[in-house]
Write a structure and sequence with these properties.
Layout: H1 4-7, H2 12-26, E1 35-40, E2 46-50, H3 58-70, E3 74-77, E4 83-90, E5 93-100, H4 103-113, E6 122-125, H5 127-138
Parallel strand pairs: 2-5
Antiparallel strand pairs: 1-2, 3-4, 3-6, 4-5
Helix pairs in contact: 3-5
Amino acid sequence: MGSLMTDNITTTGDLTRLAAHVIDALSGYDHLPALGSIGVSQWGRVYLSPRYDFHKNAEVRQVCLWADAFGVPVVIDLSSSGEIAAVLDLNGVEARLDKYITHRQAYEYGAALGIPVSPGGQVQVEAAALLAVLDQQYGVAV
């Protein structure tokens, strides 16, 4: 989903306006887990990452909480090294929130959800369903 804002990044001013838009859009979400980083590229792409947490599956849980709040699915992706991701609409600008996971984690999530996950592929799952699995199998992250 390109937009006028993300398709016309030709100056530092354009980039800072996009960054300001993203920061403004995120300011209303303090009730969700704090993010670890926000990145805005010269190509108009916006990347978000969850805050580091050493508890098992806590960062995956954070991605799910954000996805659930935005009403978007979570993608379990094994097309490369493995990741879980959600694409959020920040007032007209797409932002990708993702976390690298192991293939083993992906297979465990898929098995718990009854969805086959295969190497080289990806599946979309409801964020709330994956949250329920994480909470049931691993406990609620603090």
